[in-house]
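Record pair follows.
FIRST:
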Amino acid sequence: MSMRVVVVGSGVIGLLTAMECVLAGAEVSLVDADDIPSPSAMSHDRLRSIRALHPGDAELTRTAVRAHRAWLEVERRLGMQVHHHVGALTTLPVQHAQESVALLASVGVTADLLRPEVLAERYPTIRFPAGLAGVFDPTATVVAADQTMTALAEWLRGRPGVDMYPRSRVVAATAGGVRLVEGVVTGDRVVLAAGPWSRDLLPAALSARLTLHRQTVLSYSAQWEGMPVIPRFGTADGAWLIPPVNGAPACLSAAVTSREVSVLTDRTAPARWREHLVDRFGALLADFDPAAVTGAADGYYLSASPGSGPLLADLGDGVQAYAACGGMSFKFAPLVARALAARAVDHPLHPLQARC
């Protein structure tokens, strides 16, 4: 008889973990308090970027390259286009940009160094802070996150031995499965991957290491040709941009709009942060049109306290947990899922240090 793994959560981590368990020969029960895939999951955005460069961090950059390759494998499994190749432009002081080009080369990525005058010439409609250079990584992509999650759920529905339990809230995880508000789902192993909703299922000591954040993002209807992902413009407020792909609007935001909150509530963007982003991108983009802002919404994510170690937790009794790791969880999701699935089905795997 095959092992059965109960996966709680149908965001990108839960869906990919379920896929990895199926590929390892296990049966899967996928449980979510919402629909499957979960429209309330942190990963259920229109667009997410997949890029390699993390300036000054060789380990994270190397892991990001592995994650990108893993996403390409997911694309092959699904038999659909997941990646939209747009490249990524990171702006930095000239010396740091040179170091970043060398860092990318050390992990097998050939990037272009754009000195300040070249940067201004190549992107004349962007008003970058003075003196910054650019690092252009042509391998970076944008993923239509919501469409990819729908495809993952459909892939799972078509597999024998996969049972789905939408709109089924889990109240406890045990050695023999999970207990719902009404009923139980049994299994040999349990994986908790329900993002912020996992906190009530985690031991208090682990839950205390997690901080909930809320961030405002603008949706912008742009007619840009050749616009890359810009993970950092070099502004003090940490402005960033994901260009429009596949019919989805561009995403505009800034790190300063992320703030700590205690509970999940609505997704309504405060006027203060909407106006801040409109002003910020009005200053950065010469062709910015406030009338082209089609919406503003808040999203949530979890971060772990600095230095608290891996976020993959063995809770004992066959229960594994991954609560999330900031905005980078989507990028690293295939690697996290492999690690969770390997633990669940008792396959040896080098420990994944899921870092923020």
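SECOND:
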Amino acid sequence: MNNNLKNALINYSGKDRIKQIKFPKYMNSLLAEEIGIHIGDGFLSLEKSDFRVKGHKIDERDYYNNHIKDLYKKLYNINVNLKDYEDTYGFELYSKAIKSFKTKVLGIKAGKKDNITVPQIISNNNDNIKIAFLRGLFDTDCNLYFSPKNGKTNHYPVLSLYQSSRELIFEINRMLINLNFNTRVYQDHRYEGWTICLYGYNNLFKFIKVIGFNNRKHLIKFELWKQNFPNLYKKWRG
């Protein structure tokens, strides 16, 4: 796939030019990860040029301070103003250029995410780009937990990802299957959405090795599991 970006489609406001917002010329892993973050924790207004990325007020603060802030500076030359909101932590910005880049160049749908899909610039790309996208999405939206099995304490790993968009979930599922993960997809009637689950030790260790996390809240859970179950860790790490 041609990874050159059609940045001539970007519309700048006067404030965008004053802020010296910049855009990558080519699709790369960092941009793919940011697209995953957008689909996970982000929101792009349909009618206005508002763009927001917000996560958990407590357990994602470190991720926003030490990863997301730097990522937006590297990609767009934007110094995002991270702050507390009522129930979340993150940033809001108003940029005509950001909105046009995301919608016209990257092909991300604005508005509610009930029908959002994986942009073709990701789905038609190589595995490295898809992996970076998945990392951003799972960093922001996945739940890593350990459940009891066979009467034991909470030791059995589960990675779950909920989305309201059916098409998005099935596109992500295809990506994971093509990367040789074993997946299960469930319809969540409580919240009118869909969930992908990756069950078991093989899936967890493969995920850590192939996709990985930049969000420390997931890595902390993994480290605690290693400490609590050293024999299982030694058995399954390969």
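COMMENT: DSSP finds ten helices and eight strands in the chain.
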